[in-house]
Amino acid sequence: xxxxxxxxxxxxxxxxxxxxxxxxxxxxxxxxxxxxxxxxxxxxxxxxxxxxxxxxxxxxxxxxxxxxxxxxxxxxxxxxxxxxxxxxxxxxxxxxxxxxxxxxxxxxxxxxxxxxxxxxxxxxxxxxxxxxxxxxxxxxxxxxxxxxxxxxxxxxxxxxxxxxxxxxxxxxxxxxxxxxxxxxxxxxxxxxxxxxxxxxxxxxxxxxxxxxxxxxxxxxxxxxxxxxxxxxxxxxxxxxxxxxxxxxxxxxxxxxxxxxxxxxxxxxxxxxxxxxxxxxxxxxxxxxxxxxxxxxxxxxxxxxxxxxxxxxxxxxxxxxxxxxxxxxxxxxxxxxxxxxxxxxxxxxxxxxxxxxxxx
Length: 359
Fold this sequence. Notes:
Blueprint: E1 9-10, E2 12-13, E3 25-32, H1 38-46, E4 53-56, E5 59-63, E6 66-70, E7 72-75, E8 81-90, E9 104-111, H2 127-130, H3 138-154, E10 157-163, E11 166-170, E12 180-184, H4 190-200, E13 205-206, H5 233-252, E14 260-265, E15 271-279, E16 296-304, H6 308-311, H7 318-342, E17 345-348, E18 353-354
Parallel strand pairs: 1-6, 2-8
Antiparallel strand pairs: 3-9, 3-10, 4-7, 5-6, 7-8, 8-9, 10-11, 12-16, 12-17, 13-14, 14-15, 15-16, 17-18
Helix pairs in contact: 4-7
């Protein structure tokens, strides 16, 4: 859709949703800055919901005071619709509870589907805090996760309707999005990948270190694996013989490398790895690209912090955030080097495409 004109007045959020709702529905709100075009919301929806399409485009209406923007309706699935953008105020002028940096709001209507209360543990996205009495399931869970990812990508906030008249807000931290994946049609051999990564960080090395195998234990072949087997000794001998023959044939054939890794040890800041592999089915963000029609080679640049518990907190410690900032720079350097060598596309950890110039 074309970029909309600037300086248009937004309508307040109506008290009753403009979206049709069948049965019980949740009305979540996505708040973003005024620098976000509605087409960006459409693009991010297409990364998760392939049937996304506008049922009515946002349109300009001339008024005595200049003009205002009439909200559009975007369908992202059979049961979920998005209307907007609206101003971050209700029809009666009451604020919607967002921070001042939110100037536009999208009204998201989806089925209310709740399950069991969340298990104790990590809650990096804040959804367990918001839905403490019962997590969303099925369609609402997919929509809730997507809304958090969009809020993180666009620097916005999400106001979740926990129950009718009861709202809780989540403001995802964009800095949480550290990991990057380079999708490409080019496979780098381990030595080549190591050299590429070393151009970005001198400490990059192949993660091939292992433990020398000392052979089978002394009890192998002497102690039965199954104490009360119904097989006769002859049948067991034949079974082992066939297993040995299979192993020998597999080890005698050519070895095909399907994955490997390159690591950078950051000491107290953790480890950054480049995990090289592939996918048989490309993600939605790559659809329409000829080279990705049958899958793609993946170069997943990931950060593993030293404290995994702190990593999964909605508000991690100051020390974690400092390490994360340093690791983010290394991840970006490695992703840029790999992309320069193999081309393709770069996606963030929510599988939204990233412009290589912004990495």
